[in-house]
Amino acid sequence: MDFLNSWGLTAMVFAPLVGAVVMMLIPERDEELHKMVALVASVVSFIIGALLLTNFDYGASGTMQFGVDRSWIDVINARYSIGLDGMSLPLIALTLLVTPLVIIYSWNHIPSPGNAKAFLMLILVLHTGMLGTFVARDLVLFFVFFEVVLLPMYFMIGVWGGEDRLYASIKFFLYTLFGSAFMLVSFLALYWLTGSETFNMVELAAQVQAEGLTRNQQALLFGGMFLGFGIKVPMFPFHTWLPDAHTQAPTQGSVILAAVLLKLGTYGFVRIALPILPEGAVVWAPWIGLLAVIGIIYGALGCLAQTDMKRLIAFSSVAHMGYVMLGIATLTDFGINAAIFGMVAHGLITGMLFFIAGSVKERYHTLEIKRLGGLLIQAPRMGWILGITSMASLGLPGLAGFWGEFPAILAAYNPNAGLNTTLFRVYMVVAAIGTVLAAAYLLWLLQRTAFGEPSEEFADDPNIHDTVFTEWVAWVPMLILIIVLGFVPGLIFDVTNEPVSLIGDVFENMSSDSALGTGG
Amino acid sequence: MFLLAAEEAAAHSWLYDNVWLIPALPAAAFVLILFFGKRLPNKGAEIGIAAIVTAFILAVLTTFTWIGDIADSGAHSEEAHSLVVDGGEAIPVDLTAEEGEVRGAPIINEVEWFGIGTDANRATLGTEANGHGEPAGGEGDTHADSDGHAEKSAFSISIGTWVDGQSVMMLFVVTFISLLVHIYSTDYVNGDRRYTHYFAFLSLFTASMLFMVLSSSTLQLIVGWELVGVCSFALIGHWWEDQANSDAALKAFLTNRVGDIGLLIGMTILYFAADQSFSIKTINEMAVAGDISKGTLQIAALCLMAAVMSKSGQFILHTWLPDAMAGPTPVSALIHAATMVVAGVYMIGRLYPVFFVGFGIAGGSINVMAFIGGLTCVGGGLLAFVQRDIKKVLAYSTVSQLGYMVLALGMGAYTAGMFHLFTHAFFKACLFLGAGSVSHACHHSFDMKADMGGLRKYMPTTFATFMIGTAALAGIPPLAGFWSKDEILVGAGVWPGTEGNGTYTIPFIFGMITAAMTAAYMTRAVWLTFFGDYRGHEEPHESGPRITVPLVILASMAVVVGFFNMPSGFVKALRLPEGWAHKFEDWVEPAGVATFVSKEANKFTHAKPSLSLAVVATALAVGAGFLVWNYYKRLYAMDPKATEYTNGMASRIPPLAAGHRVLENKYYLDHLYTGVIAGGTKGPLARAANWTNQNILDGLVNAVGSTSVVAGRFIYRFIDQGVVDGTVNASGSTASRLGQLLRGMQSGQVRQYATLMFGAATVLVAVFIFAV
Fold first, then answer.
1. CB B431, CB B415: distance < 8 Å
2. Are B216 and B281 in contact (CB under 8 A)?
3. Is A514 in contact with B754 (Cβ distance < 8 A)?
């Protein structure tokens, strides 16, 4: 118990990195051993995480637990400060689950040009980076983890990617880095402007309140963070790196990218930008809402125009993350809860879709929608899985996707007191129209790939077979979660609600303060 | 007295408390069939049937318990209103009710589903009272309680069951029809390549439908609503090898999604209007008590109407329903005639106070609901005249009859609407299954003109049951449809002496026209199918018992169910026991409607039946049927194989020809939806978005990228090279090595960009710190 309290989180975050170091010492040709080590490292991380999750006090999910606060870089007062609360918990759980599944899937799906050692090491480094981002409580630490994620993904796309991999990987790297630079500027400015000489998120939030940064200052700083997080999400119009990165990335890369990496951005908004800069958030919220609903429609239209299955799924992320951002933009408990649910749901669902796309590509050697068809005949189980996942993705109630979507739409009807209600009601209607388009492109995809007779060119292809063992192992946990979360949304809402209501308090106090201010 | 009543309730409460078993059984069956079905001797059908039989028995027991309780509460009704069992405690219910009037108040059992949000209503009321921010539901919110700083707690959202007359009636209908359809299907889809999947989805559909019927909250209703939609999708597209079928499935799903926009928004509005509650009870109570402004209710009701239009096939979102006939025929009977398509009607009934107050039904003469219903019953009926496909005739007839139900509810004739839902389920299921039997005989064709005719000689049972179904649908006394249709026409309050909630003249005219039309197009269908000479090839044959027995049962129901709601005047005239009058009304019409909607401005009144109206409406139907009959008789005399006059009026008279063309093209709505809207979105609009993406947004990004490269080269060539050349010219080897290094960086580009970015960032930091 003591170990868990003081070392648990650290061990969970760095276990994969240790695994990567061990793999460095093993010669490249021992592929099986590499896979084993990688799996063990991620499973160790998972087990520690599971222990933490079982020892987590769910009655106090609003408070930081298993917190550690040690000095780190004294010169700039950056501290090694980590902790777990109800807001990061679902995302940690998602990350802990997805990475081992990706490693299991890699067992017989190492993309060309091979080299399991390097490939799996990158996944482990990524894992540490993602987990670290979700537990960091210090802005510098957060930034470091946030950026650690970039390099492995860059190499994954650049080395193991498709034909256009170089272009896609550089675009991904630079675009995200571009945003991060602005984010860093905001972080540094916070440090100086508040005069608090700390990077601790909680202290900064309190300091911003106490110092009373002007609305303009807050808005500017928020703008910097908006670029950093917004590009990562990605929000329209900063999304263009995403379809390229997703399409070119190897399956494993796409899955991690969709399941976890995009959430770093949305998580940044709810963890950092909103609580620390509430006034800035109020200024930006209408614009974020606007870009979110544009993204919903635009992403859906983009999907309808695609001819490539993977690119279609990639574009759907733009639309889905639009709902998440709309939820955040309402600045209400309901909306932010929905956003966190949406992050997890999108992670599971879109991750699954990319898994399937990868397996389809492996069998058909193409993802061109018009050449596919009849998956339900040639690989009926995979066809079914595609069907369920598409239904989940289009937000069918009873599956996970719905609980990220409908509460966000609902929240937009009645946004936070400081926001323009009429404007957000228009957003609500647009977002609701987006659900029709989502159904349109997903069902169209399903119809063209799964229904009908197989096309002549693949009809007798012996290479096309149904789901194999490693695919089952990787997919079943995600499918179960998609269904279970659909019927028991409380699994997430009950955990996130308390920390989210603390953010909600910030906005409520603010609006009542300003009301008193203007009234008196 | 009170204790006695409570004990009695406890004795019955096991069924009420465990009514969730009714949807749970088929849901479990779905999972079992999916995983083990293929390994069983009957390929999973046995699991589905076992589950639905059990569910049916439970539903019947619940129905009888309910009827018994109504009778008891009628006997000593002053206790009844404190009798509602909610989580084991008896609590007083329905504050708006007058003493002694509450009968059949809903019995709600709820458990917490999840908690979300905080009691923001309490916490922000203080600020709203300050005039800052938008009150959630209009005026209703400002009656704040003073503790603005009450401790915040998570809103708990409940899931539960709601037992009252309306839901019990639906439990009975759904399990009854579903059971018969299960039995029928074992023969009808025998040997199908996806026999097991078919039964799995039948079970899932039944479970979802029952789940929706029992909803106690709007959120639960939405979940059930969408789940039945997806089952419908899967079953319409059951034979998905053929693209026409999967197209029909997609069309059904997407059209319903369009309506769902209204559902989501409407329920959202009601959620906030009812002080953040999804509870149907709360929403209804507040709507009645005037705690929600009429304007808010009206907007919510309009939004919900969109959902009704798509789900219940109302004009102009009905176009998916005829296409949905691509699914197997038993599915059409169960989902697209008897149960799922009435979900919209059911939802109106469930939230009736919202619609009743929102549309100002009391004392009105026309409203959106009544108009849409009227338009649908006439528009759908007209289309039924020009179909060759027997299932399409029935599909448009279903559209038309659903219009009747909506029309009834729009005029305030709640019981009439629900009663028509009830009777229609039996005779329309009978007709659909009859059509399936016919097609079974005619080698899987549904084309009346090419492959049928004269079938009465070959399949007497199917013929007899189909005739009963037709007569019931056409409203011929004393069959089921007559009673419910008559009640709807009475409910318009137009005919002298009927009174009712208002004077709905236009809807009444629509209703009368439809009464005549229904008889006419059904006569046409019956003639083309069963009379004249057989036009198909090979000898047709009667179907087996697993098909005919359900037909006989449904036909018997079509005969008897109408007697459940006889007007008391009729009962008296025939000297029947007085207790036989308007039973359905007593059982089904919940306290909800009778007393919820009893405020002065929204007085809910029952119309008085009229013998003369019944006679006139029946005469219209019989007359119209007779005309069509004569038409085909004369045609037969000319040519026994003919199905239409070669030079009929529709081709001779230009306006009629034009009208015929419009009908043949289904009012061109499909051209509009598929061609213009869907095609436009998928085509030009999506392509334009993609073009913008690739050329403008991405072009911008690429331009920034290439500009940076140019800038980098510039710096390298003129500054860096210059410096290197100028100062370390002496050391050639160093220079070349440095040059290589730099070129390496450039070809990697990444580091160079990174340097640029962080350089820019440093500058920006300075700007921020010193300027802000």
1. no
2. yes
3. no
Residues of B in contact with A393 (CB under 8 A): none
Residue type, B503: T
Q: What are phi and psi of B239, to 5 degrees?
A: -100, 70
What residues 118-177 of chain A have any CB closer than 8 A to a CB of chain B? 154, 170-171, 173-175, 177
Q: In terms of domains, do B551 and B644 share one?
A: yes
Given B664, B681, B696, which residue is the final one in a domain? B664
Residues B388 and B506 in one domain: yes
pLDDT at B755 over 70: no
Q: Give the tens place of pLDDT for each residue, B575-601.
A: 777 777 777 877 777 655 555 555 555
Q: A417 and chain B: CB distance < 8 Å anywhere? A: yes
Together in a domain, B519 and B405: yes
Residue B522 lies in a domain: yes
d(CA B521, CA B384): 6
Q: pLDDT per residue over A126-161, tens digit each?
A: 999 999 999 999 999 999 899 888 888 988 898 888
Task: Answer whether A490 sits within 8 Å of B114, measured CB to CB.
Answer: yes
Burial class of residue A10 (count of CB atoms within 10 Å of its CB; 0-12, 13-18, 19+): middle
> Chain A: residue nearest B262 by CA?
A432
Report yes or no on B690 lying in a domain. Answer: yes
Q: Which of B96-110, B272-286, B652-666 has the lowest mean pLDDT?
A: B96-110
A185 with B761: Cβ contact below 8 A:
yes
Residues B413 and B375 in one domain: yes
The answer to whether the CB of A171 falls within 8 A of the CB of B701 is yes
Q: Range of B745's domain? A: 670-771
Statement to judge: residues B496 and B414 lie in one domain: yes
Judged by CB atoms closer than 8 Å, whether chains meet at A515 and B127 is answered as yes
* Mean pLDDT in residue range B474-489: 87
Q: How many domains does chain B have?
A: 2
Kindly report whether the global pTM for this prediction surpasses the value 0.90. no
A195 touching B (Cβ < 8 Å): no
pLDDT attached to residue B99: 41
* Stretch 472-511 of chain A: residues touching chain B, C-beta under 8 Å: 488-490, 493-494, 497-498, 501, 504-505, 508, 511
Tell me if A302 and B223 make a contact (CB, 8 A cut-off). no
- Contact criterion met (CB < 8 Å) for A332 and B117: yes
Chain A, residues 66-95, CB within 8 A of chain B, namely none
What count of CB pairs under 8 Å joins A to B? 226
Please report where in the chains the tokens 């990567």 appear, as a residue.
A20
Distances (CA, A) of B732 to A444, B727, B736, B737: 64, 11, 6, 9
DSSP per residue, B693-758: IIIIIHHHHHHHHHHHHHHHHHIIIIIIHHHHHHHS-S-HHHHHHHHHHHHHHHHH-HHHHHHHHH
CB < 8 Å to A189, chain B = 765, 768-769, 772
Strands, E assignment, A46-162: 65-73, 78-84
Residues B479 and B408 in one domain: yes
- Whether the per-residue pLDDT at A118 is higher than 80: the answer is yes
pLDDT band of A356, cuts 50, 70, 90: very high
Smallest Cα–Cα separation from B382: which of B527, B558, B524?
A: B524
Judging contacts by C-beta atoms under 8 Å, the chain B residues touching residue A512 are 124, 126-127, 130, 132
Is the same domain home to B654 and B701? no
Give whole-number Cα distances, B676 to A302, B319, B438, B669, in Å.
Answer: 19, 15, 37, 10
What per-residue confidence (pLDDT) applies to B400?
92
pLDDT of residue B554 exceeding 50, the answer is yes
CB contact under 8 A, B118 and A511: no
Tokens representing residue B63 in the block: 């129905």
Question: Which of A455, A497, A516 should one mutate to test binding to chain B, selecting the residue with the greatest count of B CBs within 10 A?
Answer: A497
pLDDT band for position A77 (cuts 50, 70, 90) = confident
For residues B553 and B411, state if they share a domain. Answer: yes
